[in-house]
Amino acid sequence: MSDKAATLDFEKFHNTIAGKPRDSPKVHNGVNPSDKTKLWDVPIATEHDLDDAVKSAQEAFKRWSKTAWKERQSLLLQLREELLSHRVEMTQMILKECGKPIQFAQGEIDAAAGILQYHATAPPPGEQTIQDDADLKLSLRYVPLGVVGAICPWNFPLILSMQKIVPGLLTGNTVIVKPSPFTPYSALKFVEMAQKYLPPGVLQALNGDDRLGPMMTEHPGIEKISFTGSISTGKRVMMSAAKTLKRVTLELGGNSACIVCPDVDVNKVAPLVALGAFFNSGQLCVASKRLYVHTDIYKEFQEAILNVVKSWKVGPAGEPGMMLGPVQNEMQYNIVKGFFEDCAVNGYQFLLGGEVGDAGGFSVQPAIIDNPPHSSRIVAEEPFGPIVPMMPWTTEEELLTRVNDTRTGLGGAVYCADHERAVNIAKQIEAGTIWINSFERPLPNTFFSGHKESGIGGESGEQGLLAYMNAQAIHLYKSDVGKAPKL
């Protein structure tokens, strides 16, 4: 391990303001969802802390916004190397704070490094010349917004923080990160390690209680809020940000449908559908939350997917061979339990699962509900846990009516051997991202956005960079300066 690596303490956590660690008289703790034990103390930021962070970010913006694109990219590569030099420690941290089995905790570190890598080679949005003749040169350029507030969720705390931090920094903004109080550790530690490379105030982090998010959305010194979380909270963020007309990006909940056509190879597709539904114990915004399988292969597919899921080991994240860890926190655990109870009370058939046990943590055995009514909670709402309904379909017309009968529109998946048919179905799904013959896995080089109530704006790819910039049109008149037009 390098000398730089040795300076980091992975059992002590601070807020970062103006390049320096800051503590607070009040602290709280995350909870290890595998065994409910308390994790490390984290300080709770005050309104004064936020004011100091915004002031520092505004001051740093004056110089950071003028640094060259290539210089910022060089720093991103250094941050990537720094992160990967702590891959072992960060993996263990995510395993504990999220309850992710080690292979998926490692995967989160690697995916976060991939976001840094992609942006370190992404071209800048170039200045466009719209018109250039004897009279007028009309051009369009993009400039950074200012101070960005990044309000991040608990299900992928490092990846989803990085999706906001990296494009925000690359486009010349300064960023203040607020991690989820359920999973504050990995984001706080990354921001701490970044201080060796970035000027003070360029990247800061504040852990807080329920008051910090509203303070950020209302703060007049913050120009943009990028929020990932629930639809209900996203609506409150938008209302609050409207007071100062902040720019907002909202990546909210979904109730994505997975469609399986009758021509698929069932044994090849079933494992992919299972991953799409249960990866991270269903705690993924674009997870397949409703499974629609053609009636011709319905029973065969049921048997295949049951065999896959039954082969998985489910339980505490730190035990060897785990495929699914626990639900991340008690609040979400109780929400998931409510879906199990609703299905049981209404007499829906459990093809798999049916009980939510408590072995000291928040582990939930995955469940599949056989053909519940379209109006049932398990179909109409998002559990955000390891329980999904499976329903047969016959015609594309009736299928798409059911698939699109929702106020959400985040993602979807289509499995079909006929690629032309698959694309035709995909184009009729009212959602921002569709995967064909793959489980849901967003990539950093393409725009990710929600339709309907699943979000405003989006992240990643070239369009994601533009979400952190203002457009500026410049009209250069070359002749007859000051000449008034004839009326």
From TrEMBL:
Catalytic activity of the protein: an aldehyde + NAD(+) + H2O = a carboxylate + NADH + 2 H(+)
InterPro entries (alphabetical): Ald_DH/histidinol_DH, Ald_DH_C, Ald_DH_CS_GLU, Ald_DH_N, Aldehyde_DH_dom, LUC3-like
A GO molecular function held by the record: aldehyde dehydrogenase (NAD+) activity
Domain Aldehyde dehydrogenase: 28-473
Basic and acidic residues bias spans: 16-26
Region described as Disordered: 16-35
SUPFAM superfamilies: ALDH-like (SSF53720)
UniProt-listed CDD domains: ALDH_AldA-AAD23400
Protein EC: 1.2.1.3
Protein name as catalogued: aldehyde dehydrogenase (NAD(+))
Organism for this UniProt entry: Hyaloscypha bicolor E
